[in-house]
Write a structure and sequence with these properties.
Blueprint: H1 2-11, H2 15-55, E1 58-62, H3 65-68, H4 78-87, E2 91-105, E3 110-118, H5 120-126, E4 133-136, E5 145-149, H6 150-156, E6 163-169, E7 176-187, H7 192-197, E8 198-202, H8 203-210, E9 219-224, H9 228-231, H10 236-241, E10 246-250, H11 251-254, H12 256-294, H13 296-304, H14 309-345, E11 352-354, E12 357-359, H15 369-395, H16 399-405
Parallel strand pairs: 3-8, 5-7
Antiparallel strand pairs: 1-9, 1-10, 2-3, 2-6, 2-9, 4-7, 5-8, 6-7, 11-12
Helix pairs in contact: 1-14, 2-12, 2-14, 2-15, 12-15, 13-16, 14-15
Length: about 400
């Protein structure tokens, strides 16, 4: 306790230096908390844009379908899979789709694209298809309805109510088939791939055009109660469904480039933290040495009268500990205030695109318990480690040299 009292008094012998050192460490901690919160918010936004737009949190296909979206590679036992999905308590919702490459023609132009046959009611719980509607009406079940991306509509020079002819290959036979649809709605997902290339029709109409039965399906799209289940390949549902003919994959496996950028984002937080605390550690070392040189006569005297080197070393370490504790209080408070502001108002990033996905939303910072428990502990440990060298220097002071230097 006596050493602690002395350390506390020594901090205020040069208040300006102490304040500057505390600000250096505290602001580094606040910056790390803010950066970590923003990174977490950016990852959440990225995952939300990927999973809730159209692809869902997980998908089920027949093995080989995803390689080239071959219309002939479909699930024959979709009723059995659907029964398994209904019985799984981890699922929040699911939907079925059929898909096929198609030639999309209007009276003015033609474009290659991908036909999606969707269950309009179930699709509401999985994707943002209905929310992406900017003009017209959502699918109601009428056989001739069709939704089209706004950029494709501009290319084909069509609008609501105009006729569209789809030319595609029938499943199983490979024979060309044509079907006439009318545009009932224009959608804008903010994803170049969807807006340029995809059209959506009712699943019953798509199956009829493709010559498929009601039990034949290309894709199941899943949504879990706990989104973390979709990221774990060991999830019981995945283990049950995956076999030689069927593959069930979470969004990380379906979007490997997004998973990679998330890992890089997490790694970048570590790099930022390491740089900040390296600079803070150098500041602590500098501050400690300045304090030692100012008191070198005192250290020489107490060393001469028999004070043990360990006691001097402990004094310096206690001073560093107090600086770290004060800095953590300041940094945590500032980090919380910055995080509170950015979590309420967000950070505008403008229009940003990655892998064809547009991010035009604000990034809202996210709090996590580790920001106010682990980060301050790291700060305290690193500050004490940085003070070990100055503490050993002070403990090894030779009284005669210290007294001569002070003359």
């Amino acid at each position: 306790m006596q050493t602690l009292k002395l350390a506390f008094r020594n901090l205020f012998r040069n208040i300006r230096r102490t304040i500057l050192t505390v600000m250096l460490i505290g602001l580094s901690l606040a910056a790390l908390i803010a950066v970590d919160g923003i990174m977490r918010g950016m990852i959440t936004l990225m995952v939300e844009n990927v999973t809730s737009t159209i692809s869902g949190e997980a998908q089920i296909h027949r093995v080989g379908f995803r390689e080239n979206f071959d219309v002939d590679i479909y699930l024959e036992n979709s009723d059995e899979i659907e029964q398994t999905l209904r019985q799984d308590s981890s699922l929040d919702s699911y939907t079925t789709r059929v898909m096929s490459g198609a030639m999309i023609s209007s009276s003015y132009n033609v474009s290659a694209g991908l036909l999606y046959g969707v269950d309009a009611q179930r699709e509401r719980t999985i994707s943002k298809l209905e929310q992406a509607l900017v003009r017209g009406e959502y699918l109601s079940g009428t056989e001739s309805e069709l939704l089209m991306g706004h950029t494709m509509a501009e290319l084909l020079e069509v609008g609501l109510g105009d006729r569209i002819v789809l030319t595609l290959s029938e499943a199983g036979t490979g024979e060309l088939a044509q079907a006439l649809y009318r545009i009932s709605g224009i959608v804008d997902f903010g994803m170049r791939e969807l807006d340029d290339n995809f059209v959506f029709v009712n699943i019953s109409a798509a199956r009829k055009t493709l010559g498929m039965t009601d039990l034949q399906t290309h894709e199941f799209v899943l949504k879990f109660h706990d989104p973390a289940d979709a990221e774990n390949p060991e999830t019981e549902l995945f283990q049950t469904l995956n076999d030689e003919e069927t593959e069930a994959l979470g969004w990380l496996d379906l979007n490997r480039e997004i998973g990679l950028i998330i890992q890089l984002t997490e790694f970048s937080s570590l790099i930022v933290g390491a740089i900040l605390f390296l600079l803070a550690s150098l500041g602590v070392i500098n501050s400690m040495f300045m304090s030692i040189y100012e008191r070198i006569y005192e250290f020489g005297v107490i060393k001469a009268i028999g004070t043990r080197p360990a006691a001097i070393s402990n004094l310096i370490l206690f001073e560093a500990l107090l600086i770290a504790l004060i800095s953590c209080a300041l940094g945590s408070a500032l980090g919380y205030l910055i995080g509170l502001y950015t979590s309420n108002y967000g950070i505008g990033v403008g229009d940003m695109e990655f892998s064809g996905i547009a991010f035009d939303n604000n990034i809202f910072s996210e709090f996590h318990v580790s920001q106010f428990t682990q980060f301050p502990v790291y700060v305290i440990l690193l500050t004490i480690l940085a003070a070990i060298y100055p503490a050993r220097f002070a403990a090894r002071i030779v009284p005669s040299d210290a007294l001569q230097r002070s003359l």
